[in-house]
């Protein structure tokens, strides 16, 4: 799935994506075109596994150095907002930091998820049996298929599907400061029902399967 990149980089177990405009349908032919029902089934399956809109905060606790605070780094802007909302809490920790081969002992502000915050941390299996997780703000589901284009033939046949989506967003995403420091999250939520996403599917013995799900 592809979503418009902005200053903040997010992950979806969706993985990284970009909001797009309407895609033309000239590439479809009656001979090899899949039907909307088959692609709808494939999209539902894809979004059930990859429909989480996440914040690229995979590993907790997160340490914030004074340099990051002074420079206004991404975490320096975002983590205090999560703390204010009761999703994270912070305290001072002492760590050894490797700076170009030299160890420096310094104090950092360490952020950890609270019980409330852990409800939004999603862990699931990834390719190869490994487990990954992320702190997530919303889950996307299929609204409607706008259209699709076909590429290749036979075993190489693929369908690039354009669709609109619904959003089940966490209540804290309504916070004005959250929307400011997580602009992509805010944009995706506002786009529910109108903004278009795109996903590529390959055709195999099991039907249409999202490229992102192959091997999982």
Question: Would you kindly provide a written description of the structure presented here, covering whatever features stand out?
Answer:
It is a single chain. By secondary structure, the chain is of the alpha+beta class. It has 2 domains: 11-57 and 117-213, no CATH class; 62-116, no CATH class. The protein contains 6 helices and 10 strands, in the order βαββααββαβββααββ. It has helices at 36-50, 66-71, 74-84, 115-118, 176-181, 183-190; strands at residues 11-12, 52-54, 62-64, 88-99, 102-113, 121-125, 131-151, 158-169, 196-204, 207-210. A hairpin with a 2-residue loop joins strand 9 and strand 10 (207-210). Mean pLDDT is 84; it is low at 4-32.
Count of runs of 4 or more consecutive helical residues: 6
The largest sheet is: 7 strands, antiparallel
Overall pLDDT metric: 84
Unreliable residue stretches = 4-32
Distance between the termini: 16 Å
Over all CA atoms, what is the radius of gyration? 20 Å
**Percent range for β-strand residues:** 35-45%
Tally of DSSP β-strands: 10
Shape, per Cα inertia axes: elongated
H/E topology pattern: EHEEHHEEHEEEHHEE
Overall number of domains = 2
Instruction: Give the helix proportion (percent range).
Output: 10-25%
Structural class: alpha+beta
Break the fold down into its secondary structure elements and pairings.
Elements: E1 11-12, H1 36-50, E2 52-54, E3 62-64, H2 66-71, H3 74-84, E4 88-99, E5 102-113, H4 115-118, E6 121-125, E7 131-151, E8 158-169, H5 176-181, H6 183-190, E9 196-204, E10 207-210
Antiparallel strand pairs: 1-2, 2-7, 3-5, 4-5, 6-7, 7-8, 8-9, 9-10
């Amino acid at each position: 799935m592809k979503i418009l990149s902005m200053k903040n980089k997010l992950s979806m177990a969706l993985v990284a994506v970009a909001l797009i405009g309407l895609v033309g349908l000239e590439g479809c032919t009656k001979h090899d075109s899949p039907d909307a029902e088959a692609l709808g089934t494939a999209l539902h399956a894809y979004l059930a596994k990859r429909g989480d809109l996440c914040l690229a905060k995979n590993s907790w606790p997160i340490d914030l150095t004074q340099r990051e605070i002074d420079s206004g780094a991404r975490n320096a802007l975002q983590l205090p907002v999560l703390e204010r909302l009761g999703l994270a809490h912070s305290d001072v920790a002492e760590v050894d930091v490797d700076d170009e081969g030299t160890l420096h002992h310094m104090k950092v502000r360490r952020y950890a998820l609270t019980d409330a915050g852990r409800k939004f941390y999603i862990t699931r299996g990834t390719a190869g049996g490994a487990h990954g997780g992320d702190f997530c703000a919303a889950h996307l589901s299929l609204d409607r298929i706008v259209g699709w284009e076909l590429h290749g033939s036979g075993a190489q046949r693929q369908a690039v599907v354009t669709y609109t989506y619904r959003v089940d967003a966490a209540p804290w995403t309504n916070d004005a400061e959250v929307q400011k420091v997580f602009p992509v999250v805010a944009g995706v939520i506002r786009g529910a029902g109108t903004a278009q996403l795109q996903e590529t599917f390959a055709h195999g013995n099991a039907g249409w399967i999202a490229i992102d799900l192959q091997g999982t």
